[in-house]
Structures are given as C-alpha cells and as structure tokens.
Amino acid sequence: MIRLLHIENIAVVEKADIEFTEGLNVLTGETGAGKSIVIDALSTVTGGRTSRDLVRTGEAYALMTAVFSGDVCDGWFEDNGVQPDESGDIYISRRVSSDGKSVCRVNGAPVSATGLRELGAELLDIHGQNDGRKLLDEGTHLVYLDSFGRHYEALRSFKESYNALKAKKEEIERLSMDEREKERRIDALRYQIEEIERVKPRPGEQEELSSRRELLLNASKLTEAVETAFESLHGGENANGAVALLNEAQTRLGHAARYSDGLRILSERLTELQYSTQDISDELRDFRSQLEYSPDELDVIEARLDTLKRISRKYGSEENALTQLERNRAELSDIEDSADKLTKLESEKEALIKETVNYARGLSDRRKEAAKELQERVMSELSQLNMPGVLFQVKFNDADGEYGINANGCDEASFYMSANAGETPGRISRIASGGELARIMLAMKNVLSGGKETGTMVFDEIDAGVSGIAAQRVGEKLAQLAKRRQVLCVTHLPQIAVMADTHFEIQKSVSGGRTFTHVSALDFEGRRREVARLSGGENITETTLASAGEHLRAAEGWKTSRQ
Question: What is the CB neighbour count within 10 angstroms for residue 91?
C-alpha cells in the first residue's frame, strides 16, 4: 500500500503531502481543483509517461516522492540490482526537469523509467477515466479473457508456433516466384557473379596499385636520387664510396684498439655504422630495381585501377563486391535448387500448420472454460452494483484467417450484455451506457484482481454516468474491495465519499496572481460539510448538513455490519 505521496511543482500544485491509510481513500473537490493531478503524480512516480508540461509554470523541475509498505517485490529488486530497505518500505522518487528529462530512484538507487514502470505495475493498478471506454473496443475482449484465465503459457506456445509458420510461409513465397521472374532474377545474379569473378578484386588492391602508380609516375626523379645516393655509398670509377671508406677506417682503428679501451669502443661503434651503411646500400640497390618497369606497365595499372573503381562504385568496395559475390552464389543456388527445397519447406509448413492449429484449439478450449466462470463472476459483481437483471455473456466466433487462425488463435471473442431481464443480449460496444460501462469495468477490475491482496487500486472518477442507488452500490463495492487491498478513488458522488475510511478534500485558490491547489485530510465535521456540498452545491444549510451526517453514520453502520 502507499503510505505517503509528496508532490512538488506539478501543474497548479506547489507543494503537497498526502498520507494515505489502509482501506478506502477518497479524494473530492470542485471540478478543476486538481484531483486528477494527484492521479497523474501517482502514475508518474510509478513509471508512467511524462512530459515537461507537468512542471509548474516558472519552476525548474517537478518532484514526486512516494513511500510504499507491505508490498512484496523481491523479484524486482533482485532483477534490478537494488537493495531493499531494512524497514521493508519502498521509497520512490522521480524528478522531471523543465526540459522533459527525468531521474528515477528507488531506495536511493537510480533506475530506468522502464524498470520503474515494471515496479509500479506491482504496486499500483490505476483505472483512469477512459479505461471503461476500452470495453467498447472488441479487440480488447480476448485480452481481458486471457488475463482472467491466466493463459500465459498456452498463449506463448501458440504465438511461437504461429510466428514460425508465418516465417516458413514467407520463405516459401520468396522461392515460389513465377518462372518469368525466376529467369529474370537468375540472369541478374549470373551477370553480377560473372562481372565480379571476371574482375577478381582483391582486398587492398586499389591501395597497392595506387602506390605503384605514384612510384612509376615519379620514376625519373626517384631514379636520379637513388643512383646518386647509391654511388655516394658504394663508390664509382674515380672515387671510393662511404662503404669502402668506412671499411678502411674500421680496419685501421681495429688494429689500434688493441692498445686503448677508448679506441676499442669507437671501433665497435664504427663497426655498427659500417653494417648500417652496408644495409642502406643494399636496400637502395633493391629499391632501384623496383624503378625498372616495362613501357606498358603504367598503362596496365591505369586500366586495372579504372576497373576496380567501377566495381567499387557499384558495390561500395572490393570487400563488399566479394561479399555480394558470395550472397549471389548462395541465392542462385537456392533458386536453381528451389524445386527440391520447396518440397522440403512445404512439408515443414504442413507440420507447422498442424502444430499451430492444435495449439490454437487447446487455447480455445481453455478460453471457453474461462468464459463460463468469467460470466458468472461478472454477473455476480454486477448484481451487487444495482444491475440485478443483467445478463453478461462471452460470445465466440471463428477467427478470420488462413487455416482458420490468426495472430490471436482460432477465436474472436466479444462481450454481450442485457441490462434488463427479458432483453436479448447485445454487444457491449453498442448498447452499454456510460454508467453501465463504469460498473462493468469496476466488476471486471474486481474479478481480474483474483482476490489479490497486495498492491493498491486507483480509480479516477469510476462514478462517470452513475447516480442514485447505483452510485450507492458502487460505493459499497469499493468499500468491500478496500477490505482486502488499499483503494484510492477520485469521485464527485456523495454516495461514494461517505464510504471513505479516509477522506481528502482538494481545494484551489488564487494568491498573488498564481493558482494553488491544497490537499487536506478531513475530520468528521469536515467530511460532513464536503458531503453536504457534493449533495447540494454551495447552498449548504443545517438541513443538508444534517442529511450529510446521517449519510455518513449510515455508511459507517453498513461497513460495521459487513465486518
């Protein structure tokens, strides 16, 4: 359950602290006072989507902090590497900056918005004003049914098989092109294969040839420099080169080195220099040989570079061309062998069809069993919500798809109802009024919760379209629900407000040209005045106050009798 919600700089709320209690917590106030802002804050602090619009005008950030207790979320803490608090409480904070960025923390540790959303799903079950309208979308009815029946494993097995069948069909379609298209594709593949094989590109070849081309274009300058350097080192007809002179110097110094340690060291250094000079001379001779080329070598290199550049422009690079060559060979092989491969794929497809249809039928059997129980449970709940003559049904139709299946199985489900005895049930999407939708959604929420005792249920104006005795029954149902789990409810109806275990009033005021919203817990007298306002508007008299007090005492008596 949530014990504390701290709100700071959210819309018209500058700062508020709300200490929730066990049981039914009701929030009331004038339209536009900011009741839904509290729900928005609860959604945001538990990972809901947010934006910069949430931040109060002129402020740098909005801050929400919540403290939960009694909720067991050990699996989430282990999965997300967050340490549980020694007290067992869960501390959550979320700061939203005016630029839209947010920072989420759980027990002081930073977590992602996704991780916070997963934790929030375990802590809060928020039913917004538009959730009842989801019942009008028949595409959600199977989702509700599968959630009630807990068909998770059967759904997983079916969807895995269905997706495998879909992939197999797509593979067959790729190979099952018509003969004319097949011939066109074969011609294109063969052309590309022959083109790349004829060129025979080599990774890095362009770089090597470009370097050789640069060398040949400057061969005359390089030859002159190399010849001059080589002659200086190796000597010519009229003079000794550096190699010969170093040899003579080393020989003379080597003889003298026997008589002097200093000369011995110099002799060793001279020997190293002699070897280095000889190595340079040999390398210059080798480099000079590279400058020797046939008259047509440059033309051959230019032609080869043009060919490689054309291939690179078409395929991206030599490496890409070689990769494309392997792909084309593999695709050509698949097409040429498609007859044999198609036979094998068709056999595999038939096996997958059988498997998928079997999974779908098994899932359908589970759904129809669950539907019977769901019908009974929902009608029982609705009878307690002043709909005693209601008839609620789950009707099935065959799925519209190949092999009698689609992505949801072999069923399509729709919820039907008749609000009055003797009437033929019709689609909820066509006949349910706003008040009926609200009560059906409350019944569904209660049934789908499966008696779960952990987590908090939040209802934002569940009373839409409800009044009179029906509103009283909704209030009683919320009170009953609040016996096994904490419930938070925003309402405009006195019939619901009187059932509260804790009642908060939300008021709006203007000060200094700015709008402020305040949240305060009401004592009995405060509740009496607020219930009187909900019943009679601003004309609060001794009569309306007495009536409100009577309603409050009657509600307490009803709750006591149900303990």
Answer: 16
**Strands 502-511 vs 487-490: parallel, antiparallel or unpaired:** unpaired
Quote the CA–CA distance of 11 and 515 in Å, as a whole number: 9
Whether pTM > 0.90 for this model: the answer is no
Give the model confidence (pLDDT) of 298-309 as tens digits: 778 888 888 888
Q: CA 397, CA 385: separation in Å to the nearest integer?
A: 29
Q: Which CATH superfamily is domain 2-129+461-561 in?
A: P-loop containing nucleotide triphosphate hydrolases (3.40.50.300)
Of 61, 68, 124, nearest in space to 92 by CA: 68
Q: What is the CA radius of gyration of the chain?
A: 42
Whole-number Cα distances in Å, 435 to 233, 351, 362, 428, 534: 106, 49, 36, 12, 18
Which residue, among 219, 233, 137, 131, has the nearest Cα to 448 in the 3D structure? 131
Cα separation, 447 vs 152, whole angstroms: 17
Let me know: does 154 contact 485? Beta carbons within 8 Å. no
Nearest partner of 412 among 165, 141, 132, 153, judged by Cα: 141
Please state the domain extents for the chain: 2-129+461-561, 187-334
What are phi and psi for residue 179, nearest 5 degrees?
Answer: -60, -40
Q: Write out the two tokens for 175.
A: 């190979």
* CA separation, residue 451 to residues 43, 442, 447, 457, 484 (Å): 23, 14, 8, 12, 8
Distances, alpha carbon 80 to alpha carbons 42, 90, 119, 254, in Å = 21, 14, 10, 77
The residue with tokens 């080329």 is: 293
Question: Could you give the CA distance from residue 115 to residue 46 in angstroms, rounded to a whole number?
Answer: 10
Cβ neighbours of 326 (radius 10 Å): 11
Instruction: Give tens-digit pLDDT for 124-179.
Output: 888 765 566 667 778 888 988 998 899 999 999 999 999 999 999 998 887 777 66
